[in-house]
Amino acid sequence: MPVMTDDEFFEWYGPWSPLDVEGVQRLLADFDAPWWIVGGHAIERFTGVHRPHEDVDIVVLSSDAPRLVQVLARTYHVWANASGTLTPLMDGRVDLPPDTVQLWVRRSAGSPWEADFGVALERDGRWVWRHDPTLPMTLDELTWVADDGVRFARPEIVLAHKARWRQPKDDLDLAAAWPLLSADAQAWLLATVRRMYPGHPWLDRLS
Fold this sequence. Notes:
Blueprint: H1 6-13, H2 21-27, E1 36-38, H3 39-47, E2 57-61, H4 65-72, E3 77-82, E4 85-88, E5 100-106, E6 113-123, E7 126-129, E8 132-137, H5 139-142, E9 143-145, E10 151-153, H6 155-165, H7 168-177, H8 183-196, H9 203-206
Parallel strand pairs: 2-6
Antiparallel strand pairs: 1-2, 3-4, 3-5, 5-6, 6-7, 7-8, 9-10
Helix pairs in contact: 3-6, 3-7, 6-7, 6-8
């Protein structure tokens, strides 16, 4: 499938006006299951180095997604993104398509999208990385909690995910985070990138 430009995306799906981290906190005040932030916001919170953001990436476990839909549906229209197809979850529906990878939310058809939630795979209550299902982690292994109570993915795990795509912003995130990682986190990231992406341009830096 060809990649859409921003203009093409907006023409088909409508514009985005994403929440910030504080907005996500308010949105999920009544959601009584774990959620965490990944992507650039997670790197920024770890490093303290600010950079522009296109959106905020939030994740919940698949077993908690139906409850999330119930909470969000009080205010928002919720759509399931499954295999690239958006399906509205109407009339209190919480039976998500089995291949749902994201939940998109907006207040109405005439409103911009405000957030999308990644629906994480899990096994025996542990998070499972879609790019390497042999690597399950507990929530404590996967995340850390900031002073304001927001849970973020650990930076080495975010960077391992970013290595797959390696956009210019990802190189900047690596440069900001790498010197601040513990020796164990650096060793894990190096071993993971070396195993999953032999010959990756980051390997010289990580070595």
